[in-house]
Amino acid sequence: MSDPGTTYRTREEVQNMRSKKDPIAGLKAHLLEFNIATEEEIKAFDKSARKYVDEQVKLADASPPPEAKMSILFEDVYVPGSEIPVLRGRIRDDSWSFEKGGFAYK
């Protein structure tokens, strides 16, 4: 966790918000209240989600780190076919153009 939540809020404030305003607990309460799901179904879904996340974490940990290149910053940002022709960089002479397979520095 990047911020324990006690840096600028008291522990009491954090606990109060978690007990009354937690969106996951609120969704669970609504699902139960309107008979959309049972407690067992919610537990099964939660278990399935945790298993999926654990598998993805293992996969990410086993994967090699991404290649250290500037163009990686622009990968998987646009839907194929909707890319902009030129992307302006931080400074005036710094620009990137889309080429098949990714952005290239100009």
SSE succession = HHHEEE
Task: Give the fraction of residues assigned to helices.
Answer: 40-55%
User: What structural class do you assign from the helix and strand content?
Assistant: alpha+beta
Name the shape in a single word.
elongated
Q: How many domains?
A: 2
Beta-strand segment tally: 3
Tell me the radius of gyration. 22 Å
Q: Compute the number of helices.
A: 3
Low-confidence stretches: none
Q: What is the mean predicted local confidence, pLDDT?
A: 82
- Order of the strands making up the biggest sheet: 1-2-3
Query: DSSP strand (E) fraction?
Result: 5-15%
Terminal-residue CA separation? 39 Å
Query: Biggest sheet: strands, sense, closure?
Result: 3 strands, antiparallel
Describe the fold and architecture.
- Residues 1-68 form the Dehydrogenase E1 component domain.
- One of its GO terms (molecular function) is pyruvate dehydrogenase (acetyl-transferring) activity.
- It is a single chain.
- With 106 residues, the chain is α+β, with helices and mostly antiparallel strands.
- Helices cover 43% and strands 11% of the residues.
- It has 3 helices and 3 strands.
- Strands 1-2-3 form a 3-stranded antiparallel beta sheet, with no helix packed on it.
Give the SSE layout.
Blueprint lengths: L10 H11 L1 H11 L5 H24 L23 E3 L6 E5 L2 E4 L1
Antiparallel strand pairs: 1-2, 2-3
